[in-house]
Each structure stands twice: as C-alpha cells, then as structure tokens.
C-alpha cells in the first residue's frame, strides 16, 4: 500500500526533493569541487547576475557522520511530510513562496556565519516547522500535524546543535529558517483550498 505521505505530496514537493537528489549527485556530496563551485552562495558572483546561488545551496547535501544519505534522508523526510501537507491543504502559491522565503533567509544567515561552506534543506525544513507551529495556534489540523511536543523536540535539537555535540551543522540556517517560517505565518496566515476542513 502506498504511503499516505507519498500520496499527499504534490508536484512542487516532489520537485524540490528531486532537485536535492540531483544536485547532491552532481556534486558527489561535495567531492566534485569544480561542480560545487557553480552552486554555492557567493555574493560577488550573485552581484554579476548568478542569482541562482541564492537558492541552490538548499539542494546541496554533504556527508554527515560519514554518510550523505543521513543528511539527505533526514531533510527529505521532513520536507515530504510537512511540505506535502502544506501543498495538499493550501493554495498553489503558498508552498513555493514559503520555500523561497525560508531558503533565502536561511542561506543568507548561513553565509554570514560560515561563508560558502554550507548546504542542505534543513533551513527550509525548520521554516516549515516554524510556519506550522505558528499557524497551528489557530488551525486545528496544523496542531495535529505538528504537536507542541514535537515542536519542542525540534527546538531542543536546534539548541543542541549550538553545543557542538552533534558535529558540524548549519545552526544559523536552522534558526534563520525557523524565524522566517514563523514570520511568514504571522504576516501571511494560511490560505486554504476550497473544501479543506482545517479551520477551528
């Protein structure tokens, strides 16, 4: 039987997942440095017109505890589940705009903390977490998708990252994405598709 998570995820959700896999293969998880150089966040080249660098670090995944699969799988599971719900429930423009907003802010935050040495979908994942948590203050369905205890678990992981006990991770990207997701929900409350019974 097909997973309900996989059935729920829409075209945009799957597109971002596919781009993460594709870009990670292109750079060979960071081993192919000449290819990696085309996609990292680098303002001097962005000022010359290479604006794709604002977003492409989101698709780049590297080895974490000796395996790129761990990094990619962890981020992808959150994206497919939470992003899939948002795309399923809300109007078509919501998830793409949320993705772009959280990617831009989390990538910028990461650049000013680490330079070009970062990548991954986790900043956007934390953006989804922040969005659902704030929106869930008024929307019953979103409180069910992301219960308060689960939100606090993600916060605990974020705090643990700053201790250095779980390795070299992009803490600033996580925090930037979380704040961006909360701000998005506060400024642009959910816009549901017709017949979606998600409100109180």
Structural write-up:
By secondary structure, this protein is an all-alpha fold. It has a single domain (11-187), classed as Rhomboid-like fold (Up-down Bundle). The protein is 62% helix and 0% strand. The chain contains ten helices and no strands. The protein has helices at 4-8, 11-26, 33-36, 43-46, 68-89, 94-114, 122-135, 140-145, 148-161, 171-187. The radius of gyration is 16 Å and the shape is globular. 40% of the residues are buried. Residues 196-200 have low confidence and may be disordered.
Q: Radius of gyration over alpha carbons?
A: 16 Å
**What would you say the CATH architecture is?**
Up-down Bundle
List the uncertain runs. Answer: 196-200
How would you sum up the major sheet? none
Mean pLDDT: 91
Sum up the overall morphology in one term: globular
> What is the CATH superfamily?
Rhomboid-like
Number of strands: 0
CATH class: Mainly Alpha
Query: What is the string of SSEs from the N terminus onward?
Result: HHHHHHHHHH
Structural class: mainly alpha
The CATH topology annotation reads as Rhomboid-like fold
The rounded distance between the terminal residues' Cα atoms is: 32 Å
Helix segment count?
Answer: 10
Give the tally of structural domains.
1
Strand content: under 5%
Helix content: 55-70%
Question: What is the compact description of this entry?
Answer:
This protein has 200 residues and is an all-alpha fold. The chain contains ten helices and no strands.
Q: Topology, pairings included?
A:
Blueprint: H1 4-8, H2 11-26, H3 33-36, H4 43-46, H5 68-89, H6 94-114, H7 122-135, H8 140-145, H9 148-161, H10 171-187
